[in-house]
Amino acid sequence: MPRRKMGRPLSFDRDAALEQAMLTFWRHGYETTSITDLTTAMGVTAPSLYSAFGDKKRLFLEAARLYAGDPAAMERTIQGAPSAYDAAHAMLTRAAVAYTGDATPKGCLLASATASGSTAACDVQDAVAAIRRSIAACLEARIRRDVADQTLPAATDAAALAGLIMAVAQGMSVLARDGASRAALLGIVAAALAAWPQTQATGKHC
């Protein structure tokens, strides 16, 4: 039987190249980032990019997963927080810091993925929306747990409260791209969390 030809090994660091692709998409968004932008930032040729990552859409989706992190780890972090309030506070604080980093583009990579109507762009938007829904669902479950434990009022709308946190996070991304400072975003975090439901007995946030 003839021997099967083996694929050529990669001549570049795939993880490092993926990180550069993530930063490029983060800076310019999905639609406006060209293959030339990507190959220049990644230090690879177009054939090498296609060989290692497939097409632009698959490269973006992999970069988005790198940006969002391990879903299981994210769920453990949210569920392991002392309370849903602590989970929301940590989530928004990390977002404010990440959106205003000195070594990274401003705002959120996921928020920069806007669709223009093309099939590929719609697929990307759907994938990004799925990541956001997953995060919101984890936070909603943590809120429901606090309601069941009676550390949040029984009338708490868990879905609306989780949606509020997601909306604040996305809004802060826009403000960061507009030039808002980290201090300004952290002030927004404090203002948003002031709306968190309070226990009737203590009047304190749960």
Strand content: under 5%
Number of strands: 0
The span between the termini is 69 Å
Rounded to an integer in angstroms, the radius of gyration calculated over CA atoms is 20 Å
Average pLDDT reading: 89
**Shape descriptor:** elongated
* CATH fold call of the largest domain: Tetracycline Repressor, domain 2
CATH class of the largest domain: Mainly Alpha
What is the count of helical runs? 9
CATH superfamily grouping of the largest domain: Tetracycline Repressor, domain 2
Q: How do the SSEs run, as a string of H and E?
A: HHHHHHHHH
What helical percentage do the residues reach?
Answer: 55-70%
Structural class: mainly alpha
Uncertain stretches: 1-7
List keywords for this structure.
single chain; 206 residues; mainly alpha; Arc Repressor Mutant, subunit A; Tetracycline Repressor, domain 2
Q: What does this protein look like?
A:
With 206 residues, this protein is mainly alpha-helical. The protein folds into 2 domains: 14-65, Orthogonal Bundle (Arc Repressor Mutant, subunit A); 69-193, Tetracycline Repressor, domain 2 (Orthogonal Bundle). The chain has helices spanning 14-28, 35-42, 46-53, 56-68, 71-80, 84-99, 119-148, 158-177, 182-193. α6 (84-99) packs antiparallel against α7 (119-148). The longest helix is centred in the middle third of the chain and has 30 residues, at 119-148. Residues 1-7 have low confidence and may be disordered.
